[in-house]
Amino acid sequence: MCYTYLVMQKDYDVVIVGGGASGMMASIFSARNGFKTLVLDHNEKLGKKLYITGKGKCNVTNNSSIETHLINIITNSKFMFSALNQFSPQDTIQFFEDNGLKLRTERGNRVFPASDKSSDVIKTLEKTMRNYGVEVSLNESISKIEKVDNKFHILCTSDYKYTANSLIIATGGVSYAGTGASNFGYEVAKQFGHNITKPKSALCPIVVKEDVSSLNGLSLRNVCLIYKNAKTQITEQGDLLFTFNSLTGPIALTLSSKINKLDIANTKLFLDLKPGLSPEKLDAKFQREFLEFAKKDYRNYLNTLLPASFIEFFMKKTKIKNKKISEFTKNDRQTLINTLKKFDFTIKSLDNINVSIVTSGGVDVKEINAKTCESKLVENLYFVGEVLDVDALTGGFNLQIAWSTGYVAGNSIKN
Question: What predicted TM-score, i.e. pTM, was given to this entire model?
Answer without folding.
Answer: 0.94
